[in-house]
Amino acid sequence: MSIGLDDARAMIAGARAAARTLGLKPLSVVVLDAGGHVTAFEREDGSSNKRFEIAFGKAHGALSFGMGSRALMARAEAQPYFIAAATAAIGGSLIPVPGGVLITNAEGATIGAVGISGDNSDNDERAAIAGIEAAGFTANPG
Q1: What's the domain count of the chain?
Q2: Local confidence band at 130 (pLDDT 50, 70, 90 cut-offs)
Q3: Is 42 strand, coil or helix?
Q4: 51 in Cβ contact with 115 (< 8 Å)
Q5: Which of 142, 140, 118, 6 lies closest to 55 in space, CA to CA?
Q6: Do 100 and 65 contact (CB within 8 A), yes or no?
Q7: pLDDT mean over 39-46
Q8: Are 97 and 77 spatial neighbours (Cβ–Cβ below 8 Å)?
Q9: What is the reported pTM?
Q10: CATH code of the domain in which 79 resides
Q11: What pLDDT is recorded for position 82?
Q12: Over the chain, what is the mean pLDDT?
């Protein structure tokens, strides 16, 4: 199963709704399918420059390693040389801080990732989880 455009849009809408409820700064939200392709992206008015690249790096890194970007942050702290080398190996698209969350379906298979940038990393992750769950999927931040 792959993520369709309607599901990706629902995830973005859910993330943005959560962000408004939580009073977050303007976000940039990207949804990637399991192959790392952009399915949908939205940048809220006022979201700062280069937020797409950061959100993409969070989601892409999560998919590349099969773990959420929060877990990648812990790995970066423990093995900084490995993460630096891996970042180069995957073309630089790895941002090892919270905000990149894997999407799993009812069978437990990873079908994509959401990456968010705009507020602090913990809040970016919180909005990503809310968006994934609002669309009826399971969020895997770890």
Answers
A1: 1
A2: very high
A3: strand
A4: no
A5: 118
A6: no
A7: 98
A8: no
A9: 0.95
A10: 3.30.450.150
A11: 94
A12: 96
Percent of residues in the chain assigned helix, strand, coil, to nearest 5: 45, 20, 35
pLDDT at 47: 96
Domain extent at residue 10: 5-140
pLDDT (0 to 100) of residue 118: 98
Residue pointed to by tokens 């993330």? 15
Residue 41 to residue 55: CA distance in whole angstroms: 10
Rounded Cα–Cα distance for residues 139 and 142 (Å): 9
Which pLDDT score, from 0 to 100, does residue 1 have?
66
DSSP state of 101: E
Q: Which residues contact 90 (CB under 8 A, 6 or more apart)?
A: 60, 61, 64
d(CA 26, CA 33): 23
Q: How far apart are CA 119 and CA 39, in angstroms?
A: 22
What sign does the dihedral 71-63-94-116 (CA atoms) show?
negative
Query: Alpha helices of 1-142 — where are they, by DSSP H?
Result: 5-22, 51-65, 69-78, 80-89, 121-134
